[in-house]
Amino acid sequence: MGIAAAVVTVFIWTSFILIARASSDPARSGTLTPFDLAFCRIVGASLIMLPWGAWLVYRDRDLGVRGQSSLGGLSPLPLRQTVAVGFFGGLLYALVVYNGFVFAPAVHASVLMPGSLPLWTALLAVIVLRDRITLVRALGLGLIVLGDLMVGGVSLLSAFDGGEVWKGDVLFMMAAFLMATYGVLARHYSLNAVRSTIALTVFAFVTYVPAYLVLTLGQVLDGHLLSASWGELLFQLLFQGWGSVVISGITFTKMIQHFGPVRSTMITALVPGLSALGAVMFLDEPMLWNLAAGLALVTVGILFGVRVVAPLAVKNFPDETF
Questions:
Q1: Of 14, 222, 234, 264, which is the most buried if we count CB atoms within 10 A?
Q2: Which residues contact 74 (CB under 8 A, 6 or more apart)?
Q3: Are the beta carbons of 136 and 307 closer than 8 angstroms?
Q4: Residue closest to 294 by CA, chosen among 281, 276, 306
Q5: Mean pLDDT estimate for the chain
Q6: Which pLDDT band holds residue 262 (cuts at 50, 70, 90)?
Q7: Closest C-alpha to 23, from 120, 135, 100
């Protein structure tokens, strides 16, 4: 189950980088804004996860389980856990990542997002889980930092000439931090994969959707949902919501349960290379020398963390929800 979850997660994360850039890039005349894409992501996932969450809560109460739900009986987790995973892994991540693709190409995201994820996760695991960083892992994390600097440093220097790519790079680093925070919290609370994904979706729905509708209807926020085609909306609802949230959310959490948060993020070593290759092939993005060097450093750094070690013991809820 852990290996299958890793394969699915890598495939969806790779596709997400390419599709998000193609949808958000102003130069490609995309209809939807980053806030529209976040709306599609949250609403698409909610079509599945809200009824699922309500059913789990109803069943728990029927079995005599009390105090394990929140937000009107839609989230099957207590309020504190729902807010924690929902704020970092649901609401903020969606807003940050789609805006990042407005400024920076997919090749940058390929290096900075999956590349920074092990770095942030390792640091957070030390603080929250009292994990330790071995010498080999420290060397791998050092290579990741160098790779990130090869990409983000050049973009930052171009800011003095009026470039805006650095904004996307910063947002990609923030997105990786938010996903790492969600992963460590899921391990810290020993969360069931389905329940945590439902909880973050419910939190994002009750906080973002009303705010988005009020701001767009009041013309405070520029929304293009009404001008988009039904085909585009349906595709974004299915991929951004069902694929990127429902499926990869569950498989990512299953990875954490099986391998632990640090090794789980290390397993995603294929994502930078695959997504960068896809960006060159399908989006016609150039592979500059600093990007190639950063990609190589990040990939090697991630691979340093993939070692054969005994899985850490994790308290798992039974997967009765599948």
A1: 264
A2: 50, 53, 54, 57, 202, 206
A3: yes
A4: 276
A5: 84
A6: low
A7: 100
Distance, in Å, from the CA atom of 109 to the CA atom of 90, rounded to the nearest integer, reads 19
pTM: 0.85
The per-residue pLDDT for 318 is 40
Domain spans of the chain? Answer: 2-303
- State both tokens at 217: 């209807």
Cα dihedral 130, 259, 169, 171, rounded to 10, equals: -70
Locate all alpha helices (DSSP H) within 218-260, ordered by sequence.
230-236, 248-259
Say whether 241 sits in a helix, a strand or coil.
helix
Contact 119, 145 (CB under 8 A): yes
Residue recorded with tokens 């060097």: 293
> In 3-state terms, what secondary structure has residue 71?
coil
* Cβ atoms of 116 and 173 closer than 8 Å: yes
Residue 77's pLDDT band (cuts 50, 70, 90): very high
Tokens of 151: 């990409």
Q: Is the dihedral of CA 274, 255, 34, 100 positive or negative?
A: negative
For residues 195 and 76, the answer to whether their CB atoms sit within 8 Å is yes
